[in-house]
Amino acid sequence: MKNWNTLFIRQGFAVREISTNEFGLDIETKENTDFLMECLLNAGVHFTQEHFILTIHSKPVSEKEWLAAADFPDRGHGEGLWFHAEKEEPKIRELDLYISGLIRQLNRMALFTMGSCDGNGRRHASIRFRNGVEMDKVEKLFSIISHKKIRIRGQNLILPHTRAELLNLVEKAINIDARMLEMPTEEIAKLLFLDQLEELLNIDGESGFEKNVREHVMEILTPLVDHMTVDSKGNILAQKKYRGGNGPVILLNAHLDTVLPIEPDRAILKENNIWSSSKGILGADDRAGVAVLLQTAKQLAQSTFSGTVKFILTVEEEIGLVGARSVDQHFLWDVDAALVLDRRGSGDIVVSCGGYEEFCDKDYGLFIEETAKKAGLENWKCTNGGSSDTRIWASMGIQSVNLSVGYINEHTSKEMLDIESCYNTVKLVNAVFEGARELRRLLYRISRSNLNFAN
Question: Which GO terms fall under molecular function for this chain's record (predicted)?
Fold first, then answer.
């Protein structure tokens, strides 16, 4: 169930959240405010309005109910009547139901539109921009917020998204402003990554109580994968084929739980590239790994990788790898290699537990080292480490490594996260996927070598 603020944003209303169920309307036009009141009445919501303050006294309705309340026959047919002044705000009632929120965000970023259609469930959505709008900025924006390939023809944008996906794009666009579009795409992606990382760090979820963080991760991951499920233990299992899936099958893994609860009144302290907690653990073990996994899932759609990725986000890792031990082996039968995102420090490629329990053939670890060098990432080296979910995947014969994600002093109130090191892990993982052809050949050689040794 989405909260009122999210429902308003996805439909395009410019409200200012003051507190739970209390909103400022001073940044919205009178026409759009009147339409918002009309929608609330249609939804049977009890509310009061005093000057520019809206207070809602009812629980949020479902989005299906909210869309029904905002809809009416021939909605969207009047679009185009309001494009008279350069900065005049769009009239929401004149926009199609599923694209009004996105149009509002585009105009907020000075990407002024002249017409739009949500596709009506029968064809692709489309948006026409005013003459003078730089379409390279439009392309940059959608390369960041969308995992689907868009088409641009002159001042026209074609979106191959379902109407439900158009609503999801609104929430991604809300974090971007016009100034950011002047920045290189990589810098924008990094800023959004850090926003997502901070959000993850603020969701409680110690071992055995991962429900909230699991739901948050699933909401982000759902549009990025072909299939997703939660197994009987509570692990998230997901899969995505890229470009036909004719390539290696790679497992990406991180764990959802933290060793202790997140203190409810703590603050995240930021000093240059180092984040820490004002009280209790930071939770970067392993929310940093979860953030890297999600960022990789977003960027894979824009990569050249051909193959299959399986995503496993485990529960109860901190109390004995409980979640990983319960994963159905049928989900893992075709996995060629695993990248686990749950190691302290920076630059570690963990290839064994304590030097006595090997996770992979030495050449797999060396491949990761070489990939880091080619990507311009210094000081990544193979090393021995401690226990992690990596042990479980390796025990099943999967070539596995555990990669540093930037945290130190985990499990203590002195835990810190180097966000630069964390983002470098994103770069490394993406570089591994870009080198998938070479990796596939290496894995074949390792497999043949092991087969010959066994014989």
Answer: hydrolase activity; metal ion binding
Cα separation, 326 vs 321, whole angstroms: 9
Q: What is the pLDDT of residue 409?
A: 97
Residue 84 confidence (pLDDT): 46
- 270/289 Cα distance (integer angstroms): 19
- The residue extents of the domains of the chain are 186-454
The pLDDT, as a whole number, for residue 87 is 59
Quick one: pLDDT at residue 82? 46
User: Between the CA of residue 276 and those of 191, 342, 344, 423, what are the distances in Å?
Assistant: 18, 18, 14, 16
Read off the tokens for 157. 């944008």
pLDDT at residue 86 in the model: 54
Specify the pairing of strand 156-159 against strand 151-153. Answer: antiparallel
CA end-to-end distance (rounded Å), the chain = 57
Q: Are 21 and 55 in contact (CB under 8 A)?
A: yes
Cα angle for residues 397, 403, 405 (degrees, 5° grid): 150
pLDDT digits (tens, 9 = 90+) for 141-172: 998 888 788 999 999 999 999 999 999 999 88
Low-confidence ranges of the chain (pLDDT < 70): 78-87, 450-455
Are 87 and 64 in contact by the 8 Å Cβ rule? The answer is no
At residue 244, the pLDDT reads 82
The pLDDT of residue 43 is 95
- For domain 186-454, give the CATH superfamily: Zn peptidases (3.40.630.10)
